From TrEMBL:
Keywords: Amino-acid biosynthesis, Lyase, Pyridoxal phosphate, Threonine biosynthesis. It holds the Pfam family Thr_synth_N. InterPro entries: Ser/Thr_deHydtase_PyrdxlP-BS, Thr_synth_N, Thr_synth_N_sf, Thr_synthase-like, Threonine_Synthase, TrpB-like_PALP, TrpB-like_PALP_sf. Residues 97-368 form the Tryptophan synthase beta chain-like PALP domain. It comes from Xenorhabdus khoisanae. Gene3D superfamilies: 3.40.50.1100, Threonine synthase, N-terminal domain. This is Threonine synthase. Pathway: Amino-acid biosynthesis; L-threonine biosynthesis; L-threonine from L-aspartate: step 5/5. Belongs to the threonine synthase family. The modification N6-(pyridoxal phosphate)lysine is found at residue 107. GO terms for biological process: threonine biosynthetic process.
Length: 430
């Protein structure tokens, strides 16, 4: 597989290089040179397979022979060891539940596949994974790498801006997992990661790798569950499918659009955001004007500079699609809460991110269409806000209950680069 840097297409790398590097020069994103396509017959055959077998074929179509087929198949099997069920919510709308993995959020799919691929290509070389999280990536990455030889993980997150349970889930692991609470917001954490990757000395000393949604391996992994969703819905509804994606950094939506480019029948995608609405405003007005990030109930979507957006633009350009066909909508906290109550009244307990996606989908779905919204996290992961909104107690799933009473092992730092750099250099392999 060959990929090029979106900021400088003369920089071309293999899949392994792209996974190891994360970002290219000038912090450019890597994008696949070839966009494979399946025929309608091939798609129909794929849809008959089980999740793991189908995912092995989809990933092999991108990655090619760079990883031997058998080894890739084993990696996919290790990564995708949990289901992604479609649950009916009403006659014309269902939820694709992506939160049945070890950290109860969709980021388990990408995080675990990336960990498997890095383990595959790193060999004996010790590497450091540096990533910023708005909540769920951190947990997924931490759990995916926990205890792996030759890999240490450093995760930055905005202090006080992720849910206490989210924090417990990944900041209590220890061992090869280091967590750092930064006194600022997610964009500042993301900026620190970018700064670290621009620091050649640091990058070299630590063999730095990224692990947030910019890593191409995560995106490719996420393509697979869109196929899994379509495989589960009745054949007669497949041609009228509209998928609503609760978006922050826009990795999830990028993966969905890549699934469509492979030939998966999806009539329309909806980019649903909270009031951090840089993309909806861009689509409406044609100007890219990020505002200050605003804290919301759907905190994993509190991103005002979504870093996957250039990939979406590139894909639309390459495919000759019109950006005006990308549906979108913005949901504030008040409507998020009333939507959570509306869903609960229908017998479906959701959390703020899924509720944002459902709201825009319900409001925009046309007669005869069939809608799917992505359930990106388990409601119990957002226990406080779900309980406060619905006025009912939520039992904690076992994974969270076990961690809730453990001590936090995080380090605390200001948003400046110097302190972080020192912290990292102390952890460089000798
Ligand atoms: C990360 C996350 C999102 C946003 O996904 P992107 O790929 O960053 O757009 C939505 N919901 C939850 C629960 C998340 O953790």
């Amino acid at each position: 597989m060959k990929l090029y840097n979106l900021k400088d297409s003369s920089e071309q790398v293999s899949f392994s290089q792209a996974v190891k590097q994360g970002l290219g020069k000038q912090q450019g994103l890597f994008f696949p040179q070839d966009l494979p396509e399946f025929s309608r017959d091939e798609i129909n055959e794929l849809l008959k397979l089980d999740f793991v077998s189908r995912s092995q074929r989809i990933l092999a179509a991108f990655i090619g022979d760079e990883i031997p087929a058998e080894q890739l198949a084993a990696r996919v099997k290790n990564a995708f060891a949990f289901p992604a069920p479609v649950t009916n919510v009403e006659d014309d709308i269902a939820s694709l539940e992506l939160y049945h993995g070890p950290t109860l959020a969709f980021k388990d799919f990408g995080g675990r596949f990336m960990a498997q691929i890095l383990a595959q290509i790193a060999g004996e070389q010790p590497v450091t994974i540096l990533t910023a999280t708005s909540g769920d990536t951190g947990a997924a990455v931490a759990h995916a790498f926990y205890g792996l030889n030759n890999v240490q993980v450093v995760i930055l997150y905005p202090e006080g801006k992720i849910s206490p349970l989210q924090e417990k889930l990944f900041c209590t692991l220890g061992n090869n997992i280091h967590t750092v609470a930064i006194k600022s917001d997610f964009d500042a954490c993301q900026a620190l990661v970018k700064q670290a990757f621009d620091d050649e000395e640091l990058k070299h000393a630590l063999h730095l790798n990224s692990a947030n949604s910019i890593n191409i391996s995560r995106l490719l992994a996420q393509i697979c569950y869109y196929f899994e969703a379509v495989a589960q819905i009745p054949a007669e509804k497949r041609e009228q499918l509209v998928i609503s994606v609760p978006s922050g950094n826009f990795g999830n939506l990028t993966a969905g659009l890549l699934a469509k480019s492979l030939g998966l029948p999806v009539k329309r995608f909806i980019a649903a955001t909270n009031v951090n609405d840089t993309v909806p405003r861009y689509l409406a007005e044609g100007t890219w004007q990020p505002h200050q990030t605003i804290a919301t109930l759907s905190n994993a979507m509190d991103v005002s500079q979504p870093n996957n957006w250039p990939r979406i633009e590139e894909l639309f350009k390459r495919k000759g699609w019109a950006l005006s066909d990308l549906a979108n909508g913005v949901v504030d906290d008040k409507i998020t809460q009333s939507t959570m109550r509306e869903l609960a009244a229908k017998g479906y307990i959701s959390e703020p991110h899924a509720a944002v996606a459902y709201r825009v989908l319900r409001d925009q779905l046309q007669e005869g269409e069939y809608g799917l919204f992505l359930g990106t996290a388990h409601p119990a992961k957002f226990k406080e806000s779900v309980e406060a909104t619905l006025g009912q107690a939520l039992p904690l799933p076992q994974e969270l209950a076990e961690r809730a009473d453990m001590d936090l092992l995080s380090h605390f730092m200001p948003a400046g680069f110097a302190t972080l750099r020192e912290f990292l250099m102390e952890r460089a392999p000798k």
